[in-house]
Amino acid sequence: MQNRLLVVANAAGGVTKEKILFDPRSEAGLAKRVLVSDRPDGFRPASGRVGQKVLALLATGPKYPAEMARSLGIHHQTVYYHVGRLEKAGLITRVRSEQIRGGEAKLYALASDGYAVEFPVRGEPLPSLRSSGRSRALGRFFKEFFQGAEFGGWIAVGSPVQHGAAGTQARDGHYAVQLGFALGQFVNLPSVFPVKLDVDLKAEKLLGSNLVVVGGPRNNAIAEELNPSLPLRFSHGGFWSSIIDREARSYNSELDCIVEKVQNPWDRTKVCVVIAGLTGAATKAGIIGACNFADVLFQRYRSGEYAALVRGADRDGDGKVDSVDVLKQY
Predict the structure, then answer these.
(1) Which CATH number fits domain 129-329: 3.30.379.10, 3.20.20.70, 1.20.1090.10, 3.40.190.80?
(2) Would the pTM count as exceeding 0.85?
(3) Mind listing the pLDDT tens digit for each residue in 200-228?
């Protein structure tokens, strides 16, 4: 793709610029050059039936007006009229002219890959084209952790050695890797390692920070301390064997997990995101829900606190969790 800038003065008196349109869903990572204006008037020649047909035909390659007339089954004078309007609007361009049987034949092509009207709204910061495929819902939910291009906070995982009142050993910390991939779409590579063990965060007195807590109170000491203030919380009876909602209903599937965002009790200006399950597999389900299905899980979230109860699901029948069902949202 050539590096160029095209500026066209259109017939409506406005200015049309060429910009890059990048499709974040395109696996090939292809971009198109699109003519963009702040008003639709300049694109009016493209709104008619014949104008649209001419543009669609030129999308297949350069054509002469007589050639277009034959392909479209339209009188050549009608095609000449619309070609003139489209050229004046800057939507098509003359490639070359040549003499054929004593007359001048003009070859036309699209001036760009498309056209669009751009509204005067503030765009979304985009550190790189790679990150344009990110989920806006995920970005909104974790917005407090994005300080410019840096990650502002800590990801807390349970210690793999015996700790806490129950002397448990966490075995679900590695699920934070998937979360790291998801959040890495929004920030640069951190200069300081952002993942810490729960015992180290407490020892270093870093609890008054933005925290992402991975793992339930059985494995993560910080989740245990946060539990009483959570809208969806773990029942202490039976060694944290169930989750209780606000209506005192109990959920005890081995794939039940909470995904919550609350004020940090150690510093009310900060937030804590808790992704914690009754089992390691349930915590994995919560991570999958937050990372892979953020547009569904956080579709109604805009700001403030949030709580969801999700249950892991095996959609492809291979015996492993690959999706989630949302059972409850606050």
Answers:
(1) 3.30.379.10
(2) no
(3) 999 999 999 999 999 999 999 999 999 99
